[in-house]
Design brief:
This protein is α/β, with parallel strands linked by helices. It is 41% helix and 12% strand. It has helices at 18-30, 54-60, 78-87, 105-108, 115-137, and strands at 12-16, 37-40, 69-71, 93-97. Strands 3-2-1-4 form a 4-stranded parallel beta sheet. The longest helix has 23 residues, at 115-137. The radius of gyration is 15 Å and the shape is globular. The N and C termini lie far apart (47 Å). 23% of the residues are buried. The model is unreliable at 1-6 and 113-119 (pLDDT under 50).
Length: 138
């Protein structure tokens, strides 16, 4: 007997800045995988210039600053990491799209340890789709 496949919604954290992260957010939206959390650069003031604003696009999609939208460059700060852990569900995957930060163990540890073991195929397909879609837009 075959088990019925149930598609579990991934808990996604998107961190990034600029047009490429806005494009990634759009692709995730189109794929019905909107991130649970978005972390923008602390310098993102919500204004599109030569680079699009991830903060602005997140607000348009209904994200609320301090709830599921954060402007933070120092993502390795233990207080920030604890705030994310306390206020949010566990994270399955972190999409990093051109952030300023270099991630350390504490931030990377927000994602479940077994993500790649159990969901590697889905993740690779989603990443490839995002990459191909961005490349084809040019």
């Amino acid at each position: 007997m075959h088990k019925k496949y149930i598609r579990k919604k991934l808990n996604i954290l998107l961190i990034g800045r600029g047009t490429i992260s806005v494009n990634c957010l759009g692709i995730l939206k189109n794929q019905k995988h909107l991130p649970n959390l978005i972390i923008c650069d602390s310098h993102d003031d919500g204004v599109d210039t030569w680079n699009e604003s991830l903060y602005k696009q997140s607000i348009k999609l209904g994200y609320k600053e301090g709830v599921n939208l954060f402007r933070q460059t120092k993502v390795n700060d233990p207080h920030f990491i604890n705030r994310l852990k306390k206020n949010n569900r566990s994270i399955d995957i972190i999409f990093s799209v051109q952030p300023r930060a270099i991630f350390k163990r504490g931030f990377i540890g927000l994602a479940k340890e077994n993500v790649f073991k159990n969901k590697i195929l889905k993740i690779i397909i989603l990443i490839m789709h995002c990459f191909l879609h961005i490349i084809m837009k040019k």
